Amino acid sequence: MTSTAPDSQPQSQAQGQPAQEDTPRDVRLLHLLLASQGIHQYEDQVPLQLMDFAARYTRGVLKDALMYSDYMGANLADDAAGDSAATGAAPAADKKNAPRLTVEDVRLAIAARTQYEFKPTAPKELLLQLAADRNKKALPQVMGTWGVRLPPEKYCLTARDWDDAGEQ
Fold first, then answer.
1. What are phi and psi of 42, to 5 degrees?
2. Does residue 42 sit in helix, strand or coil?
3. CB-based burial label for 42 (10 Å; 0-12, 13-18, 19+)
4. What is the rounded average pLDDT of the residues 4-26?
5. pLDDT digits 0-9 by tens, 21-68
6. Ramachandran bin of 79, using left for φ above 0, alpha for ψ from -120 to 50, beta for the remaining angles
7. Best label site of 8, 31, 56, 138, fewest CB within 10 Å?
8. Rounded to whole angstroms, how far apart are CA atoms 95 and 74?
9. What predicted TM-score, i.e. pTM, was given to this entire model?
10. In whole angstroms, what is the distance from residue 42 CA to residue 145 CA?
């Protein structure tokens, strides 16, 4: 079954589909996003899959960002403890001064995930150029002999290994 963009909702209400007010806001936004990209027909599960992907990706990025933030907080606490020990001041023990999640932590988490989760592909023009360069060199001609075609004898493990010094 395929869905259509939200602009055809009044027609679909007669078919028993829910009204636009009953549709969650995120699903309506995804319908608008798909329609803005020129995608007007798709299966009903597509918005759900996109929302699931977005939720899993966001959860993973936030977990990574919290780990980076905790790591930086531990390093800052160690630095503060070292500085306070050198000056004789008492270290701050309360959690109110602990670092919170920052934009830099989220950016670092996104950059780290992008490195291993999404593989960038080379542009098609570059691949076509590389293929044309590779195909300029012709393959060697196939010999017209029958039987198993082996490489030259010096590259085969079946070559005789003579040792003249051992015969004397």
1. -160, 165
2. strand
3. middle
4. 59
5. 788 888 899 999 999 999 999 998 999 999 999 999 999 999 999 999
6. alpha
7. 138
8. 12
9. 0.52
10. 56
